[in-house]
């Protein structure tokens, strides 16, 4: 008590003062805790936007809705899926320039930040350029081709094309990009699929069927 009371002071006043100081510290700690909940979200969005301005915007645009058909839309992709793809580019498991060079400039934390940012963006509708292929694409997507050992795409990518954290969201994706990636799987030029599933399936599709599937998924809303 002597540490709290000046010589000749009132011990009761010292207790009151100590209580006030205690309440002040509790209040400050509560404020710090509240800021800790709010600030990371703000900082994450700002960091993502800075990275996009530097590396991504020219091809994928700020909200991840690439307007050049050869480039993929990143908007709406499951964060875990996009994080894996960026990590695969950075580690050399998925090969395609300039993405390999760009991904190597990102830390794991920055990759996660970008994945979360693009996952939260709304995907714009796709564009169909060959409507005569839609019916065949629909058949393959929803029913597969049992005669040639092709399973329905909907089995992994879901009937609405929204995908899962392991299987990419393809609804509304740019058709030329989808056709390009299926062709790369078919030719073993892309090899970062789990269990060689996409390479096996794409290898059983003709080039016309690949185009049909690409057109159909672009039409999905």
From TrEMBL:
- Alphabetized InterPro entries for the sequence: Cyt_c-like_dom, Cyt_c-like_dom_sf, Cytochrome_c4-like, Cytochrome_c_Oxidase_Subunit
Give residues annotated as binding heme c 2: 153, 156-157, 198
Entries under PROSITE patterns matching the protein: CYTC (PS51007)
GO MF, one example: heme binding
- All residue ranges annotated as the Cytochrome c domain in the record: 43-122, 132-221
Q: Which UniProt keywords apply?
A: Electron transport, Heme, Iron, Metal-binding, Periplasm, Transport
Cellular component GO terms, alphabetically? periplasmic space
Matching Pfam families: Cytochrom_C (PF00034)
What is the recorded name of this protein?
Cytochrome c553
Taxonomic placement = Bacteria, Pseudomonadati, Pseudomonadota, Gammaproteobacteria, Chromatiales
């Amino acid at each position: 008590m002597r540490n709290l009371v000046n010589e000749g002071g009132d011990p009761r006043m010292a207790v009151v003062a100590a209580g006030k100081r205690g309440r002040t510290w509790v209040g400050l700690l509560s404020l710090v805790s509240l800021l800790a909940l709010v600030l990371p979200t703000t900082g994450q969005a700002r960091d993502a936007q800075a990275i996009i301005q530097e590396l991504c915007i020219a091809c994928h645009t700020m909200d991840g809705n690439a307007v050049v058909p050869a480039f993929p839309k990143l908007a709406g992709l499951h964060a875990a899926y996009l994080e894996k793809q960026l990590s695969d580019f950075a580690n050399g498991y998925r090969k395609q320039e300039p993405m390999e060079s760009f991904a190597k400039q990102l830390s794991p934390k920055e990759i996660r930040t970008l994945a979360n940012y693009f996952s939260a963006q709304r995907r714009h509708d796709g564009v169909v350029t060959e409507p005569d292929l839609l019916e065949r694409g629909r058949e393959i997507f929803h029913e597969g081709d049992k005669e040639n050992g092709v399973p329905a795409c909907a089995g992994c990518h879901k009937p609405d094309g929204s995908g899962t954290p392991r299987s990419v969201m393809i609804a509304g994706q740019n058709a030329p990009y989808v056709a390009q990636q299926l062709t790369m799987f078919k030719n073993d030029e892309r090899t970062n699929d789990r269990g060689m599933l996409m390479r096996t399936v794409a290898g059983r599709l003709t080039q016309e069927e690949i185009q049909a599937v690409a057109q159909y998924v672009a039409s999905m809303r």
